[in-house]
Amino acid sequence: MQWKGVMPAITTGFKQDLTLDTEHIANHVNWLVDNGCAGIVANGTLGEATSLSFDEKIQVLQTCISAIGDRVPVISGIGAMTTKQAVALAEKAASIGCSGLMVLPPYQYSTDWYEMKAHVAAVIAATELPCMLYNDPSAYGTDFLPEQIVELAEEHCNLCVVKEATTDVRRITAIRALLGERLSIAVGMDDVLVEGVAAGATSWVAGTANALPRESVLLFNYAIQGNYDKAFNLYKWMMPLMRLNAVPKFVQMTKLMQETVGRGNPFVRPPRLELEGAELQTAIDIIKIALSQRPEILKTEQ
Question: Which residues bind pyruvate (predicted)?
Fold first, then answer.
């Protein structure tokens, strides 16, 4: 596993009856890889994992692995209500050929470090796969502090990367100050991508890339190369779209972006509902205005 480049946290495609659309999922991940993405992260928050059964999560992973083969690694989000369920999912993901795991806090239970450490440690230790710790306190109510991450890194050699979604770029600096190159950092919120890379992140678990993979890869490459003039020009254009991925209805917004570019549909599972009325129209306007103002650089560079 090379924790580098753009690794989209994929949406989960559904048919109109809200069953899994495995044909769409297979086509989608191949399109992302064709456009330069370096990995696929499935069964994450953007993938509506909380609404998927255990068997459906495995089906999503098998679909991704079958579709892209060994072109890029497939990383499975590992989230569950209980530690036992999370460990079982990790073990199954390893057995079917996933290349890595993204370890989430338990669903619905935000607790102290003593209990949280026990949960994520059990998942990390369940397999030999390289693991990414998912730190998104706004989504899960748990904030993995840099000192706590150090504890996990010292005790688990297969903890390799932290997905930092706090939006506080200082966290990246703090983790690197404590651990040096021991852990890689992945940017976990789209609208801090350039700042995160400047602080030392080497990968991006991206949402907007579901609809704009080529543009996302180009932006990431500019940032990692330190080409900040070109990066800022592209970043400024993408920012309104990125911020649609940073609101409570980010799943609906991302799927709407996919639909607008001809790469998906708006179907989501309740309690999520499709956008409608003024909220839908506002989002459509933002997307269409942005797409109509694509920077010249996108027409000349691949």
Answer: 205
